[in-house]
Design goal:
The chain is α/β, with parallel strands linked by helices. It is 45% helix and 13% strand. One of its GO terms (cellular component) is cytosol.
Length: 321
């Protein structure tokens, strides 16, 4: 079998690292780390990864308070990532960064430049912007643009504005990130944004966070108690809500352990599961989850799909049809 395609792996070029340090922010509760292309290549060899689709982790360019500075930082990252991809297109790709979603014009301009000119593999969004989740009506022009481009959209968790870790011993990536992913996915469903713009192929990080385990509760509760409050374009029945929940793609970064796989493989459509590592923020964890996935009993057809085939169909330039 050919090497894996990793849809959840991060880059942190020096200029971006410097920008974060200048605003005094750590990455969503995770101490700032160093990153190098060589380290990524070594980990890829170790885990049997052939292609890495790079993205920024949280926080992204939207952390900069100045609108123009955020636009410039997103552009700088995208051109850097595009140059890297062009130099080695079989081994690297990238999800483009965009500014704060409240900057509609800046986001649409960068989406068009990244997808049309730089040939990005997709766009990276975060779960929330200034306390607003991704189904927010103000973000509809951005979803319309992504829909019109048939874009792949990679959603990475971050913490909602104003929230703090429960404890220094319980940092956001350990627990809260899963809830944030589930929350923004549920918001996209019940607002009808997911259903209204189906051409945007959305990847949820970390196995979809809490969405898979809470999807039936969401479907029953919304349909039975709150259907009269839903938007006209929202799914109305429990079956429709559940169908929308299963229409996302789900990467397996930090979700490759037995009990999580048991649930995901029973719940999610098999063609919707993708390999992910979360390197370099996950190192030991990435290896543990990858080895667990490799040891998990499944058919050769399913394994090929999770490692390579499903991603190739999502990213035709990597050999899909």
């Amino acid at each position: 079998m050919v090497g894996k395609i990793d849809v959840h792996t991060h880059a942190l070029p020096d200029f971006f690292h410097k920008s974060l340090l200048e605003v005094g922010r750590e990455a969503s509760g995770v101490p700032m780390i160093t990153w190098s292309l060589d380290a990524t290549k070594r980990m890829n060899t170790k885990l049997g990864i052939a292609t890495s689709i790079l993205s920024l982790s949280a926080p992204g360019p939207d952390i900069l308070p100045d609108k123009q500075a955020a636009r410039s930082l997103a552009r700088q990252y995208n051109e850097w990532a595009a140059d890297l991809t062009k130099s080695d297109p079989s081994h690297f790709g990238f999800f483009a960064a965009i500014p704060n979603l409240h900057d509609t014009d800046g986001c649409i301009t960068e989406i068009r430049y990244a997808l049309d000119d730089l040939k990005a593999d997709g766009i990276c969004l975060f779960t929330t912007y200034d306390g607003k989740y991704l189904g927010e009506p103000a973000f509809e022009p951005i979803w319309r643009e992504l829909h019109n481009h048939h874009a792949v959209v990679f959603i990475h968790p971050t913490m909602a504005k104003g929230t703090r870790p429960l404890s220094i011993m319980l940092q956001p990536p350990a627990f809260d990130f899963a809830h944030e992913t589930g929350r923004t996915a549920a918001h996209l469903i019940v607002t009808g944004m997911k259903r209204k713009y189906p051409n945007a192929s959305i990847i949820l990080s970390h196995g979809g966070g809490t969405l898979p385990i809470l999807s039936e509760r969401l479907a029953m509760t919304e349909a039975n108690l709150f259907s009269n409050t839903l938007a006209p374009e929202s799914p109305k029945t429990a079956a429709e809500i559940l169908d929308d929940a299963k229409s996302f793609y789900f990467d397996l970064a930090l979700a490759g352990t037995g009990n999580v796989l048991d649930m995901l493989l029973k719940w999610a459509p098999r063609e919707r599961l993708l390999f992910g590592s979360d390197f370099p923020y996950a190192t030991v964890e990435a290896e543990y989850c990858t080895r667990s996935l490799e040891a998990y009993e499944m058919s050769d057809k399913d394994r090929e799909g999770y490692y390579v085939g499903n991603a190739r169909r999502l990213f035709p330039r990597l050999g899909g049809k």
